Amino acid sequence: LSARLQSAREEERANVADLNYLAGRKAKMMGAFETALPYFRTAYYHLYSLQGSAKSIWERYHHLAYCVHLELADAEFLNHNYDRVEPIIGEAVKHSRDEIEIANLKNILVVMYAIQFTRHQEALSIGLEILLNLGIEINTTTPDDQRNELQAVVKEGLYRKEISSLMELPSMKDLKMKTAMRIIRDLLIPSHYSSNYTVSEV
């Protein structure tokens, strides 16, 4: 009986965490970032009120734990609580299962550092590390070498193609490539202002 009660309580806490996560997502999608934050914080609290260590919780509720950490970190960033973001992401990265999860988590840091003029180099370093983990290596020997390499790739892909024909191409389905394209997009600002790297002059 005691084991059943304990199991029922755990399921209830997990459900409360999930419901708060969903409420936070709904508020965030409506642009109500300040409203969303308490929901994600409550989801995080109930997640770690479950029985066992953090490792055990992540093993039993991996998807929920990943989603809660991802959205909480993003909500803290959107509410300008920058000092809270790194610890949340650091904890989640330790328990992530693949490079896609790590990329999504660390991309929040890329964006957060990109809007801080003194941290562009950190944004670039993290972004390039993410791309490398996704199997994409950007030549950073010199800005000119990198620009030429990227130009060659783009020209090869667009050779003898009309711009209008690109509208008819199917949507990208490769999750790694979609993730990589988002990272590259978010690196445009820091790369433009960095003296060491550039991924924007294509």
Which key terms come to mind for this protein?
about 200 residues; mainly alpha; 10 helices; about 0% strand
Q: Can you characterise this structure?
A:
With 202 residues, the chain is mainly alpha-helical. 72% of the residues lie in helices and 0% in strands. The protein is built from 10 helices and no strands.
Write the layout of secondary structure elements.
Elements: H1 2-29, H2 33-47, H3 54-60, H4 62-78, H5 82-95, H6 99-114, H7 120-133, H8 143-158, H9 175-186, H10 188-193
Please tally the β strands and state the result: 0
Radius of gyration: 20 Å
Low-pLDDT regions: none
Strand content: under 5%
Shape: elongated
Q: Which sheet architecture does the biggest sheet show? A: none
User: What is the structural class?
Assistant: mainly alpha
Distance between the termini: 66 Å
